[in-house]
Amino acid sequence: MVRKLVLAFTGLGVASAVAVFLLTIPLLRRLPRPGRVSMDGITTIDDAVEACRRTHLQGWDLVAYAQNLAARKFTYSRLNTWDTPSRAFERGMGYCEQQALALKKIYDRLGIETRPVFALRCRFPARVVDGMPSPGGVSGHAWLRVRIGDEELDVCPHSVNNRPGVTDFEILSKVRTWQPWLRPFTHLGSSIENIRQDMMARRGLKGASAQPA
């Protein structure tokens, strides 16, 4: 009986993942070419680590430099939802979990203590995403908490205006530590949310274009 339940849930999970992947195909088709973007000679995570080391900065100054580097390298996007954090960094686009985990890879290589965190409800300002206006509002979000000595601050590469302890979003629910075993679930959930928000944005764009001048 237990084996049948396990097989049933496994089959359901695989079917759900396949269904979500098929729904993301229209997003994947809109990905720009080429698939790698260089910024000031920085393309990969390795490049970013070396750029940070060359500054000879320490402590919070180094944290802030790497955060700003990642924010400038990344454009927020819902299109490449299946990219790994490293691949998203190379592409120069991705959503919050990809951005945060890519930045964590940089901090890990620099010996900076970090922990990924997430909240199910955060409030964001309006912005443009994938060429379409996004009204902002409330959604889940992932970012980092970085510790230097006895001080721990929120660090998020979501905006170039962010800096350690200063973010462009308001936390509305409990902040929880993100664990590696959560990756399949948060990735799938983020993919579903990316699909939903992209569909809403395109629907809103069509509605606006249909309005009489």
Mean pLDDT: 85
Task: Write down the overall geometry.
Answer: globular
What amount of the residues lies in strands? 15-25%
* Helical run tally: 6
* Radius of gyration over all CA atoms, rounded: 18 Å
Let me know the number of strands: 9
Biggest sheet descriptor? 5 strands, antiparallel
Structural class: alpha+beta
The run of helices and strands is HHHEHEHEEEEEEEH
Question: Helix coverage percent of residues?
Answer: 40-55%
Distance between the termini: 63 Å
List low-pLDDT spans: 4-15
Q: Describe it for me?
A:
With 213 residues, the chain is α+β, with helices and mostly antiparallel strands. It has helices at residues 2-28, 45-55, 59-73, 85-91, 96-110, 183-210, and strands at residues 75-76, 93-94, 113-124, 127-129, 132-134, 137-148, 151-155, 170-171, 176-177. The strands form three sheets. Strands 3, 6, 7, 8 and 9 form a five-stranded antiparallel β-sheet that branches. Strands 1-2 form a two-stranded parallel ribbon. A hairpin with a 2-residue loop joins strand 6 (137-148) and strand 7. The chain is globular, with a radius of gyration of 18 Å. 29% of the residues are buried. The model is unreliable at 4-15 (pLDDT under 50).
